[in-house]
Amino acid sequence: MTTPQVAPNAANLLLGRGALYFDRFVAGTMTKQGEAHLGNVTKLEITTTDEVKEKYSSMVSTSALLKSVNVKRTVEVKLTADEFSLANMALALMGSESTLSQAASTATTETITTSAKLGRWYPLAKRNVSVVVITGKVEGTDFSVDATTGRVYLIPTGSIIEGSTVTVASYSYGTIDYKSIVGANANVIEGYLRFIGDPATGPLFELEVWKVQATPDGAFGLITEDYGNFSLTLKVLDDSANHESEPYYRLLART
Q1: Which run of H or of E encompasses 211?
Q2: Which one is predicted more confidently, 1 or 2?
Q3: For the domain 17-56+67-98+182-253, what is the CATH code?
């Protein structure tokens, strides 16, 4: 009797692509704030790991397996992304989005060092500065200014004395409103995850994960030899309270 041959179905071969969205909960709640597109994601994987307790017989030399029980299940989603939006950076740095603002005005009599080291930069209290005045000193000869960051450089060949106190007599500063990340200030980041597939070939899946806890996975490179990226591990949390029959996630086959 010959075994029937079943031809492989090429339509089931998957070369995955798609869009990933994350809705970060308000801290300490499950209140959604809207699904943010994570941009270009180069890897998205789900891993299910079971911890099994096994009992073997001690009555025979072969120690036959008597019982195997699954005592713990861990579900994780791992992703790698390469778009450095503020929302993405806040996730990768366990931080939060913020702003750095200042209103235009002038400052007077600001000491930047009490023991000057020539060839060093010293920050002013404000950014976006102009018309920096150090009494008796000449900009470009004795000191220079990084106007954007608000720093003063003490030129080694100038007349400022090593070890002296340097006081800026006055300067002006303009209005700024920079977006920023407050790094590492989030104890826990939780949210909802949605993936909408658009595969190069194969079935189209949509994934909804009701509740995940995000943690960075690896370094966040600001200087790299290639395009930068970052990775996250998302632990899938039980949400039986809201999804009794599917407490972890739902994978929809849309084709």
Answers
A1: strand 205-216
A2: 2
A3: 2.30.110
